Amino acid sequence: MPTAVLTDSTACLPPELAEQAGVHVIPLHVTVGRQTLSEGVDISTSEVAELLRAGKEKVGTSRPAPGEFVEVYRALVQETGCDSIVSLHLSAAISGTVEAAQLAAAAVRDEVQVEVVDSRVLGMAMGYAAWSAADAAASGADLAGAAEVARARCAASATYFYVDSLEHLRRGGRVGAVQALLGSALAIKPLLTLAEGEVQLEERVRTRAKALARLETKCLEAATAVSSERGVDVAVHHLGWREQAEGVTDSLREALPADCRVDLVELGAVAGVHTGPGTLAVAVAPRV
């Protein structure tokens, strides 16, 4: 394979899908007290949810160090025989992962050509893009072509999500303190989105039920706006809220055309640290 595709664990790609797609994954880290744990290796999403509910230990996140990327890039060359790598990562506006990847790419430039792509998204909006890039590479696309497929699919995607509390986002600096305070004071249940790579308010809704109904409506509108020729993939994410997520998944499968893929995918541990239990998110990713 001339071009390999690497993404990070915030893409939330289930291991079986990553293997099927030929996508390689580097884990981000969850910090618990003084421990640093690799997402999906040393700590699971359910364990993060339990820690956040208990509130007894300080839980945070950290990016991979540039040296970790260097090791992974070199390992990919050895394992796959690739001569180039598309390195696709979560939005640089909310993480330093892209910066670490760029530093590592510069360090190995005499060994392998690495194109670092800022997805400006996370979750399966990025996971589906990595899948498409790997498929393009397997079909003969060069480094520039596979990277462009990843960028195009990320740019075409929409992600909407609901959190029961903005407190975890506020603590991590992912939304302004004023927005979090207003949401709490006015008993608003916000519907959020990723726009320009950042968490932004999509709508203010008064109740949880109305927020979830609007979430489903927004996702249906986004999915059905895509031409039937291209098709669309949809992923429903959750943290500690499987029953609700299953209901939304079933509703979307029933409402969308049969050729639309709808996956139920647990939110990753790193993203879960910043959204908290009671999170429901939907990624709508038009095929390119």
Automatic annotation (TrEMBL):
Keyword Plastid: no
Domain of life: Bacteria
Keywords from the UniProt entry: Lipid-binding
Pfam name, any one: DegV
Claim: 4Fe-4S is one of the keywords in the record: no
Residues annotated as signal peptide: none
InterPro entries named in the record: DegV, DegV_C, DegV_domain_contain
Protein name: DegV family protein
Lineage: Bacteria, Bacillati, Actinomycetota, Actinomycetes, Micrococcales
